[in-house]
Amino acid sequence: MSENTGTLQLPFAAPREEPAGRVVVSDAFELLRSLAPESIDLAVTDPPYESLQIHRARGTTTRLTTNWFVTVPNERLPELFREIYRVLRPDRHFYLFADEVTADVIKQQQGIASARLPNGARKCSSGFTYWKEIVWAKTTLDGTRIRGGTGYHFRAACERILFFEKGKRTLNDLGVPDVLMAPRPGVPGPAVKPGAVVRTLILMSSAPGELVIDPFAGSGVVGVEARAEGRRFLLGDIDLAYLDPSLADLAPAGVVVARAGTPDAEPREPPELDELAEGRASEEELDAARALGWLQPVTSLREGPLEKLLELRPKEREAAVRRALRSGGAAGEPEMLRAWRAWALSGRRK
Ligand SMILES: C[S@@+](CC[C@H](N)C(=O)[O-])C[C@H]1O[C@@H](n2cnc3c(N)ncnc32)[C@H](O)[C@@H]1O
Fold first, then answer.
1. Mean of the per-residue pLDDT values for the chain?
2. Which DSSP category does 40 fall into?
3. How many Å lie between the centroid of ligand 1 and the Cα of residue 97?
4. Residue 343 has what DSSP assignment?
5. Helix extents (H) in 9-140
6. How far is residue 45's CA from residue 96's CA, in Å, rounded to a whole number?
7. Which residues contact 56 (CB under 8 A, 6 or more apart)?
8. Sequence-separated (6 or more) residues with CB below 8 Å from residue 304
């Protein structure tokens, strides 16, 4: 009899199938650090840039004044590039959505200057080759016209997608123009990108079965389109509230995918937090805050969630309040609390 039974391989065991898609709740930097080098085939991502704070401060539109999420400081972007370069296999592409302000910052950080390689591309300090900006031109819903956006020095009607390459990979279709036209997606969520644009990037730079990553996934449009085109995907975000309902089954157990449920109340913005803390809010609002556990008994020595929120800088507070409200919900809650939760999901302001 063989002594080596511990390593016995059953010839009839079914091969283990890798899941086609994964969705995790994670800080993007931690997620990337946890991945093996050269394990990913394509990165398409859209971080929450510091420049959003400029748009919010100007308060040009409701969409931009709404504080959906916390931002990643510009000084951390080189780390993002280093990590994405590390996890990509050789001869792969990386697409980064960016506004004009952030595109400038990234080019400076990456040392992308006027000197060009003989093929017209430029080298980055992270090791990538930078090819060019692709433009998402925002159209009307029927796609026939460019839709004017914000600003007073020509309306901003486009977003940039910076196109990087590790090694050398030929695009799958050499006839696609660098202006991609699509209307803004009409779904709630933080700066959701259109499926048609994301699909084009995936089709251009990956093959069926390859693994696509988006560590700042938001609605998960990269996963939706990767799956539709037979690619595998890995999505991460610190907040899955706006994940596309078709991906909700992939979210870890117990995580709230608010978009998968229908809010049953008219959205209402909560009052200023110090009004709650000092008991100056209405009785209905105080009830809602109690149901949330925000108003601790006076005898409690531990700092409660409301105090923690109050310690945040005002510009970070709204995003934190929205996240706190989105990550919960139980039957029989006060109507006011359901209205606050609906507000947190809708992104509306007063
Ligand atoms: C601009 S949105 C991405 C939108 C996405 N491209 C889409 O089309 O739906 C940025 C996302 O980054 C998430 N986020 C913010 N800080 C993060 C971090 N440190 N790690 C991972 N995700 C983060 C936010 O929750 C938000 O969903």
1. 86
2. E
3. 12
4. H
5. 28-33, 52-58, 62-65, 77-87, 100-109
6. 5
7. 64, 65, 67, 315
8. 293, 294, 295, 296
What tokens were used for 148? 């004017």
Residue 151, phi-psi category: left (phi > 0), alpha (psi -120 to 50), beta (remainder):
left
Token code pair at residue 259: 């978009």
Cα-to-centroid distance, 286 and ligand 1 (Å): 31
DSSP label at residue 91: E
Within 6 Å (CB) of ligand 1, which residues are found? 27-28, 46, 48, 69-70, 72, 189-193, 215-216, 218-219, 221, 236-239
- Conformational region of residue 270, where left means phi above 0, alpha means psi within -120 to 50, and beta covers everything else: beta
Nearest CA to ligand 1 atom 12: 216
**Residues 339, 318, 80, 137: is their CA dihedral positive or negative?**
positive
Quick: pLDDT tens for 123-176.
Answer: 999 999 999 999 999 999 988 999 988 888 898 899 999 999 999 999 999 999
Q: Containing H/E element for 276?
A: helix 273-277
Q: Kindly list the domain boundaries of the chain, sorted by start residue.
A: 21-260, 273-346
Instruction: Please name the residues in contact with 336: beta carbons below 8 A apart, sequence gap of 6 or more.
Output: 268, 284, 285, 287, 288
- Model confidence at 15: pLDDT above 60: no
The dihedral sign for the CA sequence 242, 245, 251, 255: positive
Q: Which CATH class is domain 21-260?
A: alpha beta
The answer to whether the beta carbons of residues 289 and 295 sit under 8 Å apart is yes
Token representation of residue 38: 């050269």
